[in-house]
Design brief:
Elements: H1 2-19, E1 41-44, E2 50-55, E3 60-66, E4 71-78, E5 83-91, H2 96-111, E6 117-127, E7 132-141, E8 147-152, E9 157-165, H3 171-191, E10 193-194
Protein name: Gliding motility lipoprotein GldD
Signal peptide: 1-21
InterPro entries: GldD-like (IPR019850)
Length: 195
Amino acid sequence: MLKYIQNTLILLFLISVIACADDPTPKPNAYLRLSYPEANYEKANLEVPFTFDKNKLASQVGVKKMGGQDNYGVNIEYSNLKGTIFLTYKNINEDSKHLMEFIKDAQNFTQKHTIKADEIVEQVYINDERKVYGMFYEVGGNAASQSQFYVTDSVKHFLTGSLYFYAKPNYDSILPAAKYLEKDIRQIMESVSWK
């Protein structure tokens, strides 16, 4: 009987020591760890007045002639990321007024996202060697498009690009894919060559 009481007291002592430890803290919410393959770029030499590098991860690239002389739409689809990069090419007429209109339209298009965006970061892009000048926009928050840009040679060519996902904008959910495709948009912008 004495042995039983001793074992019971030891057990109660151990339970009280363990119970007196720090209060248990709940684990933080877990987030999906989404990882994508390293980007592998190749030249997209389409029947349009410019070339650019595209990620081989893109599932499909479509080209459509748009209204007007030498105006094109190029869609670069990423079906596994449920997103598309839309490119719009416009030929600049000899009137420099058209260039200013195109730039204003591109800037206004980006500024329309300020309703939902937390911030819009602008970054100037200049490449004198290839005659490519423009602006990159990183849009933060629940905006419809997280990345946009425009580039031009200031004489004949004007190209805009934007990223859209096939989902309701929820910045936290699409952030990994948006950051991955932001690099692709930058690669497109920085690799543009005019034909």
